[in-house]
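Tutorial handout. Part one gives the primary structure; part two gives the three-dimensional structure as tokens.
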Amino acid sequence: MNSKIYLIVDNHSKDTVYLHPITAERMKIEEGTGTLKFGTQASTINIIITAKYKENELYISENVLKHLKIPLFCEFEFINDQQNLMIGPFIGILASLSKKELEGNLNNFSDYVYHYDQIGGAIIVFSLDEVTPEEQTIQGFMFNPTNKEWEKGIYLYPSSLFLRIKWFGPKWQQHFESFMGNKIFNNFYFDKWSIHKHLMNSPDLTDYVPKTVLYTKPSDLLSFLKGNSSAYLKPINSSRGNGIIKIDRLGKNRALVKYFGRSKVTQKNLNNQKEMNRFFRQRLIPGKYIVQKSLDLVTKNAGIIDFRIYLTKDSTKEWKYITTFSKEGMPGEIVSNINRGGVAGRGLQLLKETLFLTDQEVNEIEHTMQTAAIKAVKALEKSGVHFANTGVDIGVDITKKVWIIEIQFNSPGQKGFLLDKTLYHEYLKTIMLYSKSLAEF
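Part two.
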């Protein structure tokens, strides 16, 4: 357990840190030269041990506090590594690309510090356009635990960085890595085809993955439909059900397609190969769609049912299961997405009611779902990416077989948590404790 410490400015010294003898003995700190580190920067200091101040107080010269830009209103922990004193944790959350976007969503990040008493330290939320690489500074909003407000200021780089944006590219990655090393997470992007290939490279996952090919031309789809009566066409770079087309084979060179129009699902009959070729050439970009076998997923009132499993890494840096939400699609819809009118529910109760399962059967399916989800994220990790929170979309067909449908990485949609705010805060706390562990606290 790291020591809690109160930081107090000392206006009468320079480059000096004063601490109580009991603190020095407990932390194995000796008088003399050392360093004081906050975030990615450090200052050389003179360490003086004196009973003049209280045991849990650290008096620091004003010039050191200014150089390291340490906010005194935060509640810090204190560790020592051979005269290298560290104050922290200092956690960064890259929340948006622009300052304007961040200011409109800043209050949403109060949920991330709901359990500040267990996280502690300096927590800064910022946008990418407020970073000054030449000076290694960030203008952002630091959480003040006293008044529960976000206070604007300029700070040096944090010890760990949690990305809430989609991706900021290799140039920024290299820049931040030069200061933080491998303490930046969620900065990567995989399209659906890339995810499929990674999953198929794991022998213990292939049985959970629907048959999938990359679309390059209409004949690919026609060949696929010869062995499969129905398929989904999914844009490799879209989410939330956008751009998905469902195709049902009606006979030789005949098919029914369903896709989301302006406000509802549109159906169209394609009555010959010429019509099929024209439709798919007009709508599909070669190499930008996957063709995936349609599964006989469980339904209720003609609405598709699937599930999202939330996983995050915790303070031990291991994947932890958080919860499962069900998604019940609108009747006649081709997807279950909540933004398409779907309804969220807790756990597998909906599956139990629909398939008339026993408690034991539910437990077995739930175990299989969680095991498959964790294996899937570990398969992606083998590619070298660093991520720490994800949502794995799982389907269960009418034979009770479990399927991996998609993996939502880099902070997946969180509408299901509206059902349980307490659970949402626990989920965010777990992510923040992982960030804290990356910051070495």
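Part three, for discussion. Residues 359-381 form the longest helix (23 residues). Residues 297-409 form a domain with the D-amino Acid Aminotransferase; Chain A, domain 1 fold (CATH 3.30.470.20).
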